[in-house]
Design a protein that fits this description.
Length: 382
C-alpha cells in the first residue's frame, strides 16, 4: 500500500555571492535528495530581516516528500553544508549564501529540540509570506487559523520587497527545456557524442548525432589527405546541412529540448585545416549561403582536451581509419575551434576543460560537467 506524500513548504534565501545561482543549486539538490519540487514562487529582493546586511533574494517552494520531519531537516542541513554554509548557533542573524527553512509540513504542529513547525516566526516575515502567497494563498496556518493572504495582510513587517523578473527551475530538465537547443562540440575524441547521448537520456532530449561514420570518403582521407580533402568536406557539408535542417526544424513534442553532438560550423573549421587556399575560398562561399538558413544553438559547449588525451581516447575507441591521425592535425583542429569561438557571441559559448575528467565512467565528474553547464544555462535564462 502506497503512503501519501507529505506536502511541505520551504523558504529559500541568499544574500552572499551569486544569489540566484545559490537558490537554483539549492532547488536542484532539494529535488534530488528530498522529493518532487511541485511549485516555485516568484523571486523577491528583500532587505535583511533583523540585522544590517546586504539584501536577500527570497523564494518559497512546495515539495512532495516521503521524508518524516526530522529526517527532512537533517537532509536540508546537509544541502546547506554541501553549498558551503555552516549554521552557527549564536545570538542574532548572519549573512548566508543559502538558507532553507521548513515553513509547513502538511498541517502538522510539531516542536522538538531541532525543529518547530509551522515555522515560529513565519507570520512576522514579509519575505516569507509574500512568496508563499504566490503558491499557497489559501493554505491555513494550523494554529493561527488564518490563510497566507490574511497573514500577509496583517503582517506588521513593512519591509519593501521587489518582485524580480527572474525564473527558478524545479530541476535541470526544466532548465534545459528553457534553453531549447544545445550543441556539444569538441575535437576528435573529446567525448562530445558520449556526453550528448548521456544528457539526452537523463533529461529527455531529442538527440541529434552526426552521421560521420557513414561518409565513404573518410577512410581514404586519412590515407591521402590532399587528394580526398575537397570531396570529403563537401560531402560532410551536404550531409550536415541536410540533417541539421531536417532535425532542428522538427521539434519532438515528447522531448524537452534538443541536444546535438555537433554544430554545422565545424564544417568550416575542418575545411580551413584540410583544404588548399583556392578550394577553401570556394567552399566558404557555399558554406556561408547554407549557414544563414541553419538554426543556431542557444548554448554552444566546447569540450577541451589536451592533444595527448585526445590521442589516448582515439586509440581506446578503436576506429581503424582514425588510428593514423597525428597530434599536429589535432592541434590544428583545436586552434580552428578556438579561433571560431573568438568570433562567436560570448554569452552563448561555454568552454569546459575536461582533460582531467572522465565524465562517462565517473559519476562525480559527470555531475561536475552538468553543474558547469547548468550554471551557464541559468545565466542564459534571464
Amino acid at each position: 500500500m502506497m503512503t501519501e506524500k507529505a506536502t511541505v513548504y520551504l523558504s529559500v534565501g541568499s544574500n552572499l555571492g551569486e544569489r540566484k545561482l545559490n537558490l537554483q543549486k539549492a532547488i536542484f539538490l532539494i529535488e534530488e535528495k528530498l522529493g518532487e519540487v511541485v511549485k516555485i514562487s516568484s523571486v523577491y529582493n528583500a532587505p535583511a530581516w533583523g540585522f544590517e546586511s546586504d539584501d536577500f533574494l527570497n523564494a518559497c517552494l512546495q515539495l512532495a516528500t516521503d521524508l518524516a520531519p526530522e529526517a527532512l531537516l537533517k537532509k536540508i542541513l546537509g544541502i546547506e553544508k554541501k553549498l558551503g554554509r555552516e549554521r552557527i548557533f549564536k545570538e542574532g542573524y548572519q549573512s548566508r549564501n543559502i538558507d532553507i527553512d521548513v515553513i509547513y509540513y502538511n498541517d502538522t504542529v510539531l516542536q522538538s529540540e531541532n525543529l518547530t513547525v509551522p515555522h515560529p516566526k513565519m507570520q512576522e516575515r514579509r519575505f516569507v509570506l509574500r512568496p508563499l502567497a504566490d503558491i499557497a494563498p489559501q493554505f491555513y496556518h494550523p494554529e493561527l487559523k488564518k490563510d497566507t493572504r490574511n497573514l500577509l495582510q496583517q503582517c506588521r513587517d513593512k519591509s519593501i520587497l521587489q518582485k524580480l523578473d527572474m525564473k527558478l527551475f524545479p530541476n535541470r530538465q526544466a532548465l534545459f527545456s528553457n534553453i531549447q537547443f544545445m550543441a556539444i562540440e569538441g575535437n576528435i575524441g573529446a567525448g562530445k557524442t558520449s556526453l550528448a547521448t548521456k544528457m539526452s537520456n537523463d533529461f529527455n532530449a531529442k538527440l541529434i548525432l552526426e552521421r560521420f561514420a557513414e561518409n565513404p570518403f573518410l577512410p581514404n582521407f586519412y590515407e591521402d589527405k590532399a587528394r580526398y580533402a575537397f570531396p570529403l568536406e563537401m560531402s560532410f557539408l551536404a550531409d550536415r546541412y541536410q540533417q541539421f535542417s531536417d532535425d532542428t526544424s522538427q521539434f519532438d513534442l515528447f522531448k524537452s529540448f534538443m541536444i546535438s553532438d555537433y554544430d554545422i560550423f565545424k564544417s568550416l573549421i575542418f575545411a580551413k585545416v584540410t583544404l588548399q587556399k583556392q578550394e577553401f575560398e570556394l567552399y566558404r562561399k557555399i558554406f556561408n549561403f547554407m549557414y544563414k538558413e541553419i538554426k543556431k544553438p542557444r548554448i554552444y559547449v566546447y569540450l577541451y582536451q589536451t592533444t595527448d588525451r585526445l590521442l589516448e581516447q582515439i586509440k581506446k575507441r578503436g576506429r581503424e581509419y582514425e588510428q593514423s591521425i597525428d597530434s599536429q592535425y589535432l592541434e590544428k583542429i583545436n586552434r580552428g575551434y578556438l579561433d571560431f569561438l573568438k568570433t562567436y557571441p560570448k554569452e552563448n559559448q561555454l568552454v569546459i576543460d575536461v582533460s582531467e575528467l572522465d565524465f562517462i565512467s565517473n559519476e562525480p565528474d559527470y555531475k561536475q560537467v552538468l553543474d558547469t553547464i547548468s550554471d551557464f544555462a541559468l545565466r542564459q535564462s534571464d
